[in-house]
Amino acid sequence: MEWEGKLAAVVFAQGCSWRCRYCHNTSLVPPDGHLIPWEDVLAFLQERQGLIDGVVFSGGEPTAQAALHPAMAAAKELGYETALHTNGGQPRLLERLLADGLVDDIAMDVKAPFCRYHEVTRARGSARKVQQSIGLIIASGADYEFRTTYHSDLLSDDEVLQIAQDLAWRGAHTYFVQKYRIEGTGDMPLALTPSRELPTSLLARLAEMFARFGVRG
Ligand code: SF4
After folding, report:
1. Which of 26, 16, 29 is nearest to 64 (CA)?
2. 23-48 pLDDT, tens digit each
3. Residue to substitute in 61, 117, 133, 149 for testing ligand 1 pocket (most ligand atoms within 8 angstroms of CB)
């Protein structure tokens, strides 16, 4: 579900400079030029004013788009609630979006313990940016969730616990674990390796750490 409890349009933005092995939107990364012009998206949203609640900006990585800020501002001007799905890799842009009141709801990936972040994202420096974004989101007052995609070939049980403990320590109230999905992925060795389930004892422990916790997939 793109935005729980809301009837929402989803704008899938192209582009992302990270290369997570489990990415299930590989067709959007990198950009391939097959774009729907923003004017067409805007016309679609204008026609549906009053019929849908909000607009979700997803991807790919929407913060990779220079035009994200004006696009979210335009959606707001039409009276829509807005949600952002992000990897947290652009804290400065995120800070501006939050300060300008352009984001009502954020879903942000927390992909690994910070000492191993670059191994999952295959992008140097990603951990530092993500830590900044986590702090901004928790302090923002916007609705949010943090979420981790889990495949046992990429994360151990202890590492999932470590991610959750760090988020809880920072004051996060909502955390979800998302099971790896094969659809749309391009990494065959990972796709062909069955992922172990997380132990129920660990899931029970995670549930105690957050006001809202769940497993999806
Ligand atoms: S950050 Fe998201 S869009 Fe970018 S490669 Fe990773 S999963 Fe795909």
Report:
1. 16
2. 988 877 776 767 889 999 999 999 99
3. 61
